[in-house]
Write a structure and sequence with these properties.
This is Zinc ribbon domain-containing protein. Helices cover about 15% and strands about 15% of the residues. The chain is of the alpha+beta class. Strands 2-1-3 form a three-stranded antiparallel β-sheet, with no helix packed on it. The longest helix has 9 residues.
């Protein structure tokens, strides 16, 4: 269930409410009891970080461990044959 953010147009009171997507929006302000609440558009409150399905799935061969590549990069770049991270074949 998403968390919706509301603001009262009469008194400026802001609140968050955990509601079903199918639930009707709130209208009455709990602070001033006026029917002037409006739903705000806000950013999601989570961040996808670290290794996980979104980073490692659908990758093949040496591209599977993107997070671990930075640790092994300095050793392989000493030989001069490896390209730096972020460089594409088209820019060469």
């Amino acid at each position: 269930m998403p968390i919706y953010e509301y603001e009262c147009k009469a008194c400026g009171h802001r609140l968050e409410k955990l509601q079903k997507i199918s639930a009707a929006p709130l209208t009455d302000c709990p602070a001033c009891t006026e029917p002037t609440l409006s739903r705000l558009v806000s950013a999601a409150g989570f961040r996808l970080a670290g290794g996980g399905w979104y980073e490692t799935d659908f990758k093949s061969g040496s591209k599977k461990n993107l997070a671990g590549d930075s640790a092994s990069m300095p050793a392989s770049s000493e030989s001069g044959s490896a390209k730096p991270a972020g460089e594409s074949k088209a820019s060469a």
